[in-house]
Specification:
Layout: E1 8-13, E2 15-16, E3 28-29, H1 32-49, E4 57-62, H2 70-80, E5 89-94, H3 101-109, E6 114-120, H4 124-129, H5 136-148, E7 153-160, H6 167-178, E8 184-189, H7 197-200, H8 208-224, E9 228-231, E10 234-236, H9 243-249, E11 255-257, E12 262-265, E13 268-272, H10 276-280, E14 285-290, H11 293-304, E15 311-312, H12 313-320, H13 324-327, H14 329-337, E16 341-344, E17 347-350, H15 352-356, H16 358-366
Parallel strand pairs: 1-4, 1-11, 2-3, 4-5, 5-6, 6-7, 7-8
Antiparallel strand pairs: 8-10, 9-10, 12-13, 13-14, 15-17, 16-17
């Protein structure tokens, strides 16, 4: 099922200069000696895992890849270089305060053409409260430096529902971001995970009502400026979708390397160990799921419906020998009548309202 060429690679760099209060990603406090050893293990895993050297998309995430000191950051880029020669999109995540001129010049030299900046909020007081170490001024400076050095495809990440952030403050966040003329904006609703400072401090996640209103405001302001709401949490200028993330949402295979990284290769979805000492010893995959036909069907519905490309009903019929519309006509027609779904050129597509209740729609379609 996924034996076709694998064109995308995700690389996880788990190091951060400080740990944000809400963060539940696989992350570690940055120490040079550990980071250096980690890059050696990463290079070994890449060599053993990635057989296609003509990848179309590469995404280096974290953690904070730009937390690496300049010589180690250069080493990372050199390790990835053999795989990036034909990449159409090569993204690195960055924090504003660690995005130096030197690192930007290195990225440009090694073919990085897209940067995703963790902003979270444009209010300096809120940033301090959640243990972020940048200001909005740092964000503006980082954006200017990127453009001065020829990297113009820039995403800004925002978090919705942070403590003490009102809808009015969120509106200001979006207007501040728009003032930077981004090509892409990602907005994620706060989830409070166990073992985070937010959980320890009993911070509550936003209500469904607040989240709906927040997404509605974001959607309205961005669309006025020509952005397309192409995925539940993502907006872009025309033709500036994240090609790498579309790989996930199209349910296509991809390599995942690094601590805690996930991948999907030869009908197996896997997740690497999050235990650093195990990873450094060469023990990588911790969890594996062999994707059977029924699993593939569920993933196809669940992931395809996250985007305005939607679920291709003809492709679904070819893959699973099923007519989804015929089997679920009453449910689908109900969601069409209520304004949550539409069918365009035989693609089942969520509206904005549909994206807001996508879990329910998915469950109804796979039941």
């Amino acid at each position: 099922m996924t034996k076709n060429n694998i064109n995308s690679l995700y690389i996880h760099i788990p190091f951060c200069e400080s740990i944000c209060d809400y963060c539940d990603f696989t992350k570690l406090q940055y120490f040079r000696n550990i980071a250096s050893t980690y890059l050696e293990a990463l290079e070994k895993e890449l060599t053993e895992t990635v057989t296609n050297h003509d990848l179309l998309t590469i995404y280096i995430g974290g953690g904070t890849p730009t937390s690496l000191e300049d010589d180690l950051f250069l080493k990372l880029l050199q390790i990835v270089d053999p795989y990036s020669k034909k990449a159409k999109e090569y993204t690195i995540e960055a924090n504003p305060e660690s995005l130096s001129v030197n690192k930007i010049k290195m990225m440009k030299e090694y073919g990085v053409n897209r940067v995703s900046i963790g902003v979270e909020s444009t209010d300096d007081r809120i940033l301090k409260d959640i243990n972020r170490h940048h200001t909005f001024s740092d964000v503006k400076k980082a954006k200017e430096l990127l453009e001065l050095n020829g990297i113009n495809n820039i995403n800004f990440d925002l978090m919705l529902g942070l403590p003490n952030v009102s809808i009015k403050m969120l509106q200001k966040d979006i207007l501040n971001i728009l003032s930077l003329n981004p090509t892409h904006v990602s907005c994620y609703s706060l989830t409070v995970h166990e073992h985070t400072v937010f959980h320890i401090n009993k911070i509550t996640p936003p209500s469904d009502e607040f989240s709906y209103e927040a997404y509605r405001i974001v959607d309205s302001l961005l669309k006025k400026e020509g952005f397309i709401h192409y995925e539940v949490s993502n907006w872009c200028k025309p033709n500036k979708e994240s090609l790498h993330n579309l790989t996930y949402w199209r349910n296509e295979p991809y390599y995942g390397v690094g601590l805690g990284a996930s991948g999907y290769v030869n009908d197996v979805r896997y997740k690497n160990t999050t235990n650093l000492s195990m990873y450094l010893k060469g023990t990588n995959a911790q969890e594996k799921e062999v994707v059977k036909l029924k699993d593939l069907e569920i993933y196809q519905i669940m992931l395809n419906l996250r985007t305005i490309e939607g679920l291709d009903l003809e492709k679904y019929h070819r893959l699973f020998k099923k007519d989804l519309y015929k089997e679920k006509q009453q449910i689908i027609d109900g969601y069409i009548d209520s304004g949550h779904l539409k069918i365009v050129k035989n693609h089942l597509i969520p509206t904005f309202e549909g994206m807001m209740i996508l879990d329910k729609i998915t469950l109804d379609l796979i039941a």
